[in-house]
Amino acid sequence: MGKVYNVSKNECLGLVVLAVSAVATIIGLSIAYDKQRAKNQGNPGDEADTSSTSVPLTTPFTPKEPWDYYRLPDSLIPGSYNVTLWPRLKPNADGMYIFTGHSAVVFRCEKKTDLIVIHANKLNFTTFLGNHAKLNGLGEAVAPAIVRTWLVVRTEYLVIQLSSKLTAGESYVLYTEFRGELADDLEGFYRSEYMDDGVKKVVATSQMQATYARKAFPCFDEPAMKAVFIVTIIHDRGTVALSNSKEMDSSNSTRDNVPVTVTTFEPTERMSTYLLAFIVCDFDSIQSDYSNLLIRIWAQRKAIGGGQGNYALNVTGPILQFYEKYYNTTYPLSKSDQIALPDFNAGAMENWGLVTYRETALLYDPMLSSTGNKERVVTVISHELAHMWFGNLVTLQWWNDLWLNEGFASYVEYLGVDYVEPTWKIKDHIILYDVQKVFAMDALASSHPLSRKEEEVTKPTEISEMFNTISYSKGAAVLRMLSEFLSEPVFAKGLSSYLNTFAFGNTVHTDLWDHLQQAVENTPNLHIPHNVHDIMNRWTLQMGFPVVTINTRTGRIDQKHFLLDSDSKVDRPSQFNYTWFVPIKWMKNGVDQQQYWLLKETDTHAPMRVSGDEWVLANTNVSGYFRVNYDVDNWGRLLSQLNTNHQVLSVMNRAQIIDDAFNLARAKIIPTTTALRTTEYLSKERDYIPWASTLRNLDYYVLMFDRTEVYGVLQAYLKKQIKPLFEYYGTLTANWTKIPAGHTDQYNQINAIRIACVVGVKGCRELINSWFRQWMENPDHNPIQPNLKGTVYCSAIALGGVEEWDFVWRMFQNTSLASEASRLRSAMACTKTPWLLNRYLAYTLDPTKIRKQDATSTIQYIAHNVVGMPLAWNFIRSKWSYIFEQYGRGSFSFSNLINGITLRFSTEFELQELKKFKEDNLHVGFGSATMALEQAIEKTAANIKWVFFRQGIVYSLSPGAHIAINLELNRITFG
Ligand SMILES: *[C@@H]1O[C@H](CO)[C@@H](O)[C@H](O)[C@H]1NC(C)=O
Ligand SMILES: *[C@@H]1O[C@H](CO)[C@@H](O)[C@H](O)[C@H]1NC(C)=O
Ligand SMILES: *[C@@H]1O[C@H](CO)[C@@H](O)[C@H](O)[C@H]1NC(C)=O
Ligand SMILES: [Zn+2]
């Protein structure tokens, strides 16, 4: 799946909201409709399905029969399916939207058995002589009679008991007819709705990953059960039917007295069920023929008519061509369709040949969308297309290795974007959006290793929980490190050999290591200190990462597991004792030195001993997944280099110094003063990445202190630092009338305005208000530059009242551009008026006001607002069972909801409330947010300890006072 963030990455980064803007944070959304399981929880004998940490309510369930296990038995292997589906886009007499279908699956018996166990969920079957299926032998094989068939709700199976055993080596055909609901639950085969010139339109579409194909038709729904699919879709005349492969035949006929079109698709390649897609819609498309490959972009008619699909169409061909070269493997299919859906749970989904997107992730309007929207579109496309090979052509055996699939796509997406937008320097951004982001989560004692054991991930909620920041961003960071120390050509060579060897098959992650190791061995003069397996195991099999400390006086280097709260207890043992093989790229006085490998806990590397005003900077460009600390003197020399001429260091290195210092300070390894001093030079900084890093780190201070006296001091300091940047952009844009030329300059302009307005730099709020006023006076003409809209809307709402809010609400309902709707939706959470926030919270439960796909992110936006936080927390607590039932299985959304709400928690009282919330709702469960809740408890405890030092921060920020103050001292003084 695509990474799920919902505001453009760049627009929300460092969206330090101080008091004013309450937007922020990256949100995932995914919506689940898990009535079935909520019901099951009451059943005696049921396994408490909620989490590994919650107390089982009933006696633990011991699986005995094959259908008691979540994993399929290995006796039967599917070969091909003929699937026919007929979605009804109008409700039936009971007001229900349904689909009907039939399927014939050919499977081979590997081990003799008298039982057929196949996945099926929420399907009603036609019975033949009382059974849910018919069975025939293929060729010479004679099928035994069916004795009995039944459905198992907990493990989502259709089970068929036979009178005698199937013969190993023979093939059989299982035929079923079924009927399901085309619900608005965003899972399996579901429906999406939108208004087209006042007329309600319905789309039938699908989301199979991870375990929802079984909700569309009975299937062996595991990624290694690859098969060929021959799909037929019956649909209303005049509508379009799409699936993974090219349409082969389309004819008009009549079914049940209804005039319909029957569209048949070419047989697919051998593929996994989670990559299937079926769509019926009334969309329009644009297409091109790129090196003989049919590329189409589909969306609502008015979006295509308005040219919103053009950018996607233009970049798709070149990105596919880039990957063909990079992987050294041709695109395996005969067409590439991409479609923007009004209701969609993730950001995008890499269905093979028919990629599905949120509208905001595929559509771009050059006049009305922001640069951030554009970057998001091309990034998500690049991510999904990377999966066409890595993930789709070669698929991981099981979900425990999901990190490799998602981490890989999250890494190479930057390479694909760089190919089509070479001026953006997009590859630098990985340190903001992945590396630094995941450092924050992976520094908790409650983190977890990238790689899981296969048997630890079996239930659907456990599979959903794998779609998290660790899998995506740590996966990307660790693979980038690997590619850096092998060098890109060697990495690509190993990769291509892996893809060609396992095409149309399945692998485990060590298969990739094998092929990379071969590539290393075939490269003369490439030396790595251990083989790829041994190096990578330390990064993937144990959680966390090291902080490497370099003493430049002695040349001594050591590593230690980095924990945000050094007192926290690590319960999870590691076979490597939390030490790593660390590749260290480094420089001395701005000159790159030869890479050094730290292979033990402590070592000495003489070249790192320096004197005079020489300085050492290690982990250049954050190419390794670790943090760096130095002796006090080297810190001092780095700071003075920043203050005298910061451009000697690359933007990535500047951002790294800031981010490492702030986090080392949070872990109480260095004084907070040192961290704050890395921001002194910012009055001269014009580049985006260092500013973004700073704002993200200061955001933590804001979250901790915006309810305390420290806040005033912090605001005054920021005002001093941001003012030159604000004035710089005023000049650069001829008094805010032009758009800066550079890609990242456009982002930094947003930072400049946002922060300047929040802290009250003279002229800023007046500027924003005048733009917004003009718009309110003439709603058909929005004079605000698209890049700045998000900031302007939020500030105007925060400073305004009900009139501004209602105006934005009207604009939200009227806009036909998805990215604009998303900006307006997040801006409405910026109000300071409690009743408006409460009314907005209530809207999130009404799908006619806020789409279900947007509900959890909206609650999160509100929680990020200092006024909204307690309101959102009360809201969540009072409606937990309902919210759980609606969204509890969602991949990112649900855990982000907990993260978002607890972001500010830093008092003993809040910790107790959180623990009580956990206790009170054990019977309901926390679904895919189980891990997030544990992390929230740990983070709150760490925050409590850290905030204890706040007095020191006041002094550190006060002009002149910072020199002498050391927080370790304050602990004694003020404790
Ligand atoms: C599946 O459909 C194909 C093409 O229509 C047909 O040749 C084949 O016999 C069907 N297989 C089964 C098992 O029904
Ligand atoms: C399936 O059967 C159940 C129980 O009879 C019924 O409530 C449900 O509406 C049926 N679903 C469909 C799609 O017909
Ligand atoms: C089927 O019917 C539709 C609408 O009546 C028409 O537009 C289409 O051309 C017909 N298709 C075929 C293959 O006859
Ligand atoms: Zn993905």
From TrEMBL:
It is a single-pass type II membrane protein. Gene3D superfamilies: 1.25.50.20, 2.60.40.1910, Neutral Protease Domain 2, tricorn interacting facor f3 domain. Residues 311-539 form the Peptidase M1 membrane alanine aminopeptidase domain. It is found in: Cell membrane. Its EC number is 3.4.11.-. GO terms for cellular component: cytoplasm; extracellular space; plasma membrane. Signal peptide: none annotated. Residues 38-57 are annotated as: Disordered. Zn(2+) binds at H383, H387, E406. One of its GO terms (biological process) is proteolysis. The chain crosses the membrane at residues 12-33. Keywords: Aminopeptidase, Cell membrane, Disulfide bond, Glycoprotein, Hydrolase, Membrane, Metal-binding, Metalloprotease, Protease, Signal-anchor, Transmembrane, Transmembrane helix, Zinc. Its cofactor is Zn(2+). Homodimer. Belongs to the peptidase M1 family. PANTHER family: AMINOPEPTIDASE, PROTEASE M1 ZINC METALLOPROTEASE. This is Aminopeptidase. It comes from Crenichthys baileyi (White River springfish). The lineage of its organism: Eukaryota, Metazoa, Chordata, Craniata, Vertebrata.
